[in-house]
Amino acid sequence: MYRMNSDYTEGCLKAVLNKLIETNMDQTNGYGEDPYTYEAKELVKKTFACPDALVQFLIGGTQANFVLICSALRPHQAVIATNLSHIATHEAGAIEHTGHKVLEQPSDDGKLTAEQVEAAYQTYALDPNRPHWAQPKLVYVSQPTETGSLYSKKELNDIYKVCQEHGLYLYVDGARLAYAFGSEENDLAIEDLAKTCDAFYAGGTKCGLLFGEAMVIINDKLKEDFFSIAKQNGGILAKGRLLGVQFGEVFRDGLYFEIGKKACSQAARIRKAIEERGIKLVTYTPTNQIFIDITKEQYEKLSTEFALSHTGYLPNGNYSVRICTSWATKDEEVEKIIQMIKEL
Amino acid sequence: MYRMNSDYTEGCLKAVLNKLIETNMDQTNGYGEDPYTYEAKELVKKTFACPDALVQFLIGGTQANFVLICSALRPHQAVIATNLSHIATHEAGAIEHTGHKVLEQPSDDGKLTAEQVEAAYQTYALDPNRPHWAQPKLVYVSQPTETGSLYSKKELNDIYKVCQEHGLYLYVDGARLAYAFGSEENDLAIEDLAKTCDAFYAGGTKCGLLFGEAMVIINDKLKEDFFSIAKQNGGILAKGRLLGVQFGEVFRDGLYFEIGKKACSQAARIRKAIEERGIKLVTYTPTNQIFIDITKEQYEKLSTEFALSHTGYLPNGNYSVRICTSWATKDEEVEKIIQMIKEL
Amino acid sequence: MYRMNSDYTEGCLKAVLNKLIETNMDQTNGYGEDPYTYEAKELVKKTFACPDALVQFLIGGTQANFVLICSALRPHQAVIATNLSHIATHEAGAIEHTGHKVLEQPSDDGKLTAEQVEAAYQTYALDPNRPHWAQPKLVYVSQPTETGSLYSKKELNDIYKVCQEHGLYLYVDGARLAYAFGSEENDLAIEDLAKTCDAFYAGGTKCGLLFGEAMVIINDKLKEDFFSIAKQNGGILAKGRLLGVQFGEVFRDGLYFEIGKKACSQAARIRKAIEERGIKLVTYTPTNQIFIDITKEQYEKLSTEFALSHTGYLPNGNYSVRICTSWATKDEEVEKIIQMIKEL
Amino acid sequence: MYRMNSDYTEGCLKAVLNKLIETNMDQTNGYGEDPYTYEAKELVKKTFACPDALVQFLIGGTQANFVLICSALRPHQAVIATNLSHIATHEAGAIEHTGHKVLEQPSDDGKLTAEQVEAAYQTYALDPNRPHWAQPKLVYVSQPTETGSLYSKKELNDIYKVCQEHGLYLYVDGARLAYAFGSEENDLAIEDLAKTCDAFYAGGTKCGLLFGEAMVIINDKLKEDFFSIAKQNGGILAKGRLLGVQFGEVFRDGLYFEIGKKACSQAARIRKAIEERGIKLVTYTPTNQIFIDITKEQYEKLSTEFALSHTGYLPNGNYSVRICTSWATKDEEVEKIIQMIKEL
């Protein structure tokens, strides 16, 4: 029995684990005031070519999102995001819990468009009663998206341009960022991400670490006292060096991007088999997640060997099923599922 | 120049004003611990046939909504409402500010349906990951709605039935409640409202008072410490008797319903003139608000004599314009606007 | 039976009532977009010599406090105030409800000292772990205080100086401001208040209006989108002109200060009688509130004719009892209570 | 150079690390739906003799505190705790951020008394204006306290009795719980803790795990939807099994209590040396933390070999310095510091 239902079914990369073992009994200060964290922060800034950024390691993705958002916004301000975005769905209302409305925009493929941002902003700006409305102030996008799709460089730039015109912050949720940069279809240079947003996080939990997310804040306005607001929200790990140790490993020599590339190429092989077999994709995804349109019987057949995510029912009565590769996916698993797909 | 742009352009009913004058120098305790408030609470309970209800006078509608909702819900719980509802639009994100998500359901006429409530609930209940979602717990409807439409007795009952099946609270925003009961098309008995929801408020601000809303809580689970939560949110007036004095006047002898009926009949006359002139309604409304589809030129012509609300642009390029009657609308104003409509 | 238990036992000043009657059927826009409000805002700015201030009328004192504070602070920031302050006691945790800690400083007479502010700030600033603490950012004082005491010009200036040195905002709760300026011992010029703080409100509820507080924001940093945050918190009255009409009357020709002076002089007469009779004051108060130390029997005797506030038990077993004058106190009431005090 | 400045300077126990290594590439479901977590929850319930408790593993202590408290309380409710408690000091206002006031009670030794709880409750309950106050509803104590002191069985029982009489919840922060049960002076049986409170957490971060806290909810009223509220606050780890794996190791065979005992006995040896040398304790502490009263020179001398926490200045001008043992403290470190203390 194999698991391809999510990209967080295993522990962590061997290199990460080894470093945790190696440093386990080292004595350091807490809360990120340690050499491992200092080094890792520098590596992150170097990797993303943003020497003046503020880097803060946090523990998980929901936390990263609401801490950044509640730190950035005043009480009446709101977030523009798609209805499929993580903050609109699987965070149990975390953004609203910190006091802020999510202005949900409809999306089929998980991507927000510059036109939607412009329209959402204008709906507010042109209303003579706008002081009676929640004020759009931050735009949230995921790269890659929750549904596996990918923004092109131009798409991200167009959104950022609209944001800058209207004084909106652009925040990129990079829970699976390794698999964005690892996609064959990616055209955004690693060093360009920080130039096209105000803040982003590079996810660790789904990209080879035990846990942890690297928040990178570019815009000076969003930096002040970020640590304290993270602390207030439970975002500061006592043994902060655990995050430094882990992120240091994946950003020292590009391991983060290697594993992303591998997982995307494995997913591409599976996708090719799906297409060859004539199975429909729910939506086209060039990253590590694949959503397929199969019958109950087909799902059950695959389930004899693979744990997969049944993510919902399709209009044709079929199942939408997610297949997920990750840093941990073995080639034998890929070959096995390809074989089973052929025989569906 | 006349104003028909809203139903809060004047002060208050003569009877209300006279009572305020008469009692002005009476000395009473504060915060609603006075004979006027005690009497008014009894009158409200008698009027709506709910002797065991908790009545608490509050100051305004936005406040009434968020105080009731934040008192009723635990942190992860959410509200089901239409995308046109007051809490989703003109309250500057007040519900989210208290920590709760509004699950917006699309609506053309401002009304929520029992089917939408059922579907919204099932979306949550059937999801295997539902502990990761905000939990629907309270259903918000306005009677009449923000767009002037009216729930029938059956429609409200159907919604309430769904709520009871799933343990959801039904809360009715009655900012314009006088104009619901005053509509010729209303088929809900006054004494039936409290039987078909868990809480509602009877609006004063738009129905003849200077200000004030009468919150009526039927469900025992929602009563505990409501005063304190209102106090915490600025909802308790120091000179609470001002609310008691005002509500006493409109609920002692049915004045609340008289003025509702008059305003609806005036609106019906205007609507008839609109239909006879061949002007389209944006949506059919049997209460005190009329939304018409006219050209910019027609709007400007009407605007020479009447302040009206230009509420938006229609797909055909025309203006959506609101005409509003109220307890204060004079027959001469009605005749004047009818004359102008004929000549458009 | 007379009431001297609080300064909100009656309705409003005759001039205010007359203006409300006179303007009752005028038609205006809502939410403060009306000529009465425009004029009243100008009168407030002129009165307090702050032509560039932002004036926003709000409905009540608890609301004024939490709206200003939650608008001013970021999530991790806190308020310095005395343990006797209104925000620390009778607001049901309103400040905390908006997310902010109140750093309570002990006080006997209700006044905060510049030394306390300095110490509270240094406790934070000198702590190497200060990013783990709530950050002091706003200082709250009441003028006069909840216990009737009064800051001298020097005391306020000293606090403001400490605030400015450390980047703290100074906010003055003026719920009873008329009775501060009306005190014989006041040495702060009306036009100096706005020079010695970042924001204050001039209370209406306790100073001759039916209800209403005039928030005056001096510091530009606190002005942005204040209306929206007030709206979100239920602070914007639909019939906003009611506030404009009322504040216009008391600030057009100095009525606000006249009534303050009269009430303070009445209180001074009562205090003199108390002292002559040999009754102890709980604390010395030069404004409109007097707190006396009397036995249960003395309290009961006074209570045969006067409703007074029994505010607590004193270490000697006696009652602490509040006597309150106001804009509405009649000379006959003053004479009556003086007579009763003499005979205690 | 050694670190005795805190009990979170190293990684984790060897047994815990080994199990993490061993299970690293196992594939499991996320969010705690895995066999390791299931087993660990059972072990916790067995250890603390509370078979019907709800166990939820969380990530850190600040998070554990605010998630439990915001899940337990309605908006107007408050927490009774000492001024030295973690929630009143080093959590950056986290409790207030979730909307709740902390009613701070003065304490010298970090312990709250049943008398203080009773008094705090009565201050509220006896006030005729209590609906205007934040309502005490939950009592927070730490076992052992932040300052190293320890509640006796009787002290805890007395507090719990007061809580039960007044409908207050008692919540025990057990960040260092291993060191409470490990103290020679402890008289509370492990199986008695759950009988003497409504909820507690057994800390992992400071007691041998990389991170993690085991929340144990006894009172049924506090169980409902706790997972969702934890999720909303970032408390649910994607790879939840990491918590299960770790807690399983320390609770399977009593390792948790072994390491607590060892660290307390090491601290006792150090304390004995301090007393023999004639150095004053800031406060007496029978657990793993020792606070000593030494001169700047003495501190600097110790600092040549040991990183210790300078936690503040004493009235005599001396330094208050914390020495902390933990699960990781080696005997050679203990001997070394004893030697240095002798030579101070």
Low-confidence stretches of chain A: none
Order of helices and strands of chain A: EHHEHEHEHEHEHEEHHHEEHEEEH
| Percentage of residues in strands of chain A | 15-25%
Mean pLDDT score of chain A, rounded?
97
**Number of helices, where a helix is a run of at least 4 consecutive DSSP H or I residues of chain A:** 12
How many runs of DSSP E, i.e. beta strands of chain A?
Answer: 13
Strand order of the largest sheet of chain A: 2-8-7-6-5-3-4
Q: Largest inter-chain interface?
A: A-D, 50 and 50 residues
Q: Could you give a short account of the major beta sheet of chain A?
A: 7 strands, mixed
Rg measurement of chain A, Å: 20 Å
Shape of chain A: globular
Termini Cα gap of chain A: 17 Å
Structural class of chain A: alpha/beta
Give the fraction of residues assigned to helices of chain A: 25-40%
- Oligomeric state: homotetramer
Describe the structure.
- The structure is a homotetramer of 344-residue chains.
- Helices cover 38% and strands 19% of the residues of chain A.
- Chain A is α/β, with parallel strands linked by helices and 344 residues long.
- In chain A, the strands form 3 sheets. Chain A has a 7-stranded mixed beta sheet, sandwiched between helices. Chain A has a 4-stranded antiparallel beta sheet with strand order 9-10-13-12. The first copy, chain A, has a two-stranded parallel sheet with strand order 1-11.
- In chain A, strand 9 (280-283) and strand 10 form a beta hairpin.
SSE order and pairing:
The structure is a homotetramer of 344-residue chains.
Chain A: E1 2-3, H1 14-22, H2 35-47, E2 54-58, H3 61-72, E3 77-82, H4 94-97, E4 102-105, H5 114-125, E5 135-142, H6 153-166, E6 169-174, H7 177-181, E7 199-203, E8 213-217, H8 226-232, H9 241-252, H10 255-277, E9 280-283, E10 289-294, H11 296-303, E11 306-307, E12 309-313, E13 319-324, H12 331-342
Parallel strand pairs in A: 1-11, 3-4, 3-5, 5-6, 6-7
Antiparallel strand pairs in A: 2-8, 7-8, 9-10, 10-13, 12-13
